[in-house]
Design brief:
Elements: H1 10-17, H2 20-37, E1 41-47, E2 52-58, H3 61-70, H4 72-77
Antiparallel strand pairs: 1-2
Length: 79
């Protein structure tokens, strides 16, 4: 066995998680999920304290009912 150790550059990882490239990737993934959900669903992205965040949510009452009854957002994640 070889003895080696990997040490992450914490500042580099932090910068990567908050980068514009990561924001673009999150927007792309969230947009695909939003499209699979159909009308009435929206998405949002923002840079938080530690990383970029993206979310897809039901934007109106009909979509909220649809999501509550069918788990539409959860099912769209798996496609």
């Amino acid at each position: 066995m070889s003895d080696f150790r990997i040490e992450l550059n914490r500042e580099g990882v932090r910068n990567l998680l908050k980068s514009g490239e990561m924001m673009a990737l999150c927007k792309e993934l969230a947009s695909g999920i939003q499209q699979r959900c159909g009308s009435g669903y929206a998405m949002d992205t923002h840079t938080g304290k530690n990383r970029v965040n993206a979310m897809v949510y039901a934007d109106n009452a009909a979509a909220k009912r649809d999501n509550a009854k069918n788990n539409t957002i959860l099912k769209a994640l798996g496609r």
